[in-house]
Amino acid sequence: MKTNWIKRKKTKTIYVGNVPVGGNNPISVQSMTNTDTCDVVSTMNQINDLKKAGADIVRVSVPGFDEAKAFKEIKNAVNIPLVADIHFDYKIALEVADTADCLRINPGNIGKEDRVQEVINAALDNNIPIRVGVNAGSLEKDLQKKYGEPNADALVESALRHVEILDKYNFENYKMSLKASNIEMTVEAYRKISKVIDQPLHLGITEAGSYRAGTVKSSIGVGMLLTEGIGDTIRISLASDPIDEIKIGWDILKSLNIRSRGVKIVACPSCSRQNFNVIKVVNDLEQRLEDISDDIEVAIIGCYVNGPGESKAADIGLTGASPSNLLYIDGSPNKKIKNDNLVDELEKQVRIKIEDNRIKSDKIILRS
Ligand code: SF4
Questions:
Q1: How far is the CA of 353 from the centre of ligand 1 (A)?
Q2: Which residues line ligand 1 (CB under 6 A)?
Q3: Which pTM does this prediction carry?
Q4: What pLDDT, in 10s, does the model give residues 332-349?
Q5: Dist. CA 10–CA 130, nearest whole Å
């Protein structure tokens, strides 16, 4: 797998709990809970589901002091770094600073410098980072007036005001995001800020939209920046189940060969030459293998036009043929399989291959 085709900007490393963000560290995948934070059990369950789906970090909204109390309970019950999302009232940030792994503040609504200074002091006391999250939808009033409407320069100016405050207090332990719901504005803003600061950047197209439209928009916007080497952590904002945000985030990283997790399925779109129902097999298999986090590539190709080439390049490959399809393992033909029980057989082979890979890597670790 080609993994070094992107020249990533080397940013400073900060730690959100035990997850390093920036530098040469893997680009982390985040999402945000959408449960009522005061409903501790539901929020905890959603966080655990997000972790299972591959989240490295989860953000939780803390709009008031009741939620701050709940946040502490939740944090004690889960095993993944949590970012406390704070807007308007800096005192809530002070309240959760002893528990949170990161404090997200919004320059557009957190208030004047003395309030930011108190948040910085709380972060210093607890040795946690801050995420400065600039958002086109909530820019400071004077910037809205100055620029007329949100644009990349307005986002950058808002960010730099806060950088100035953070610099004044020698606080370097922060990451930055400059999000808009518009790709051009977001990309331009991130390109600009990336030239000015060395702190890690948290990428996202905010309020990107529905599952389908938001996925396309986010993949283009976040994908553009990632291919330019910009970005250290991502959140795909979708009006959908937060689990989808994690899955899409991973799919973006996998598509760019930046990071791998779970099964990567290569499949042909199918046509009248197909010797089995490619779409059904792919969907069924993808669902059955959702629990797998090991890195493995599976090719499902409907006929001999592209089948052998793709099957040889994957860990497990299936090339459609009549009367039997041909299964490849590690690039070599392995056995013929009929259309009945195709998904059962593929699932079995993938699980065997994963077990083999695990045994092999355990042996390497034991030897070294
Ligand atoms: S690989 Fe074969 S079945 Fe699949 S789209 Fe191409 S020609 Fe059609």
A1: 26
A2: 268-271, 273-274, 301-303, 305-306
A3: 0.93
A4: 999 999 999 999 999 999
A5: 19
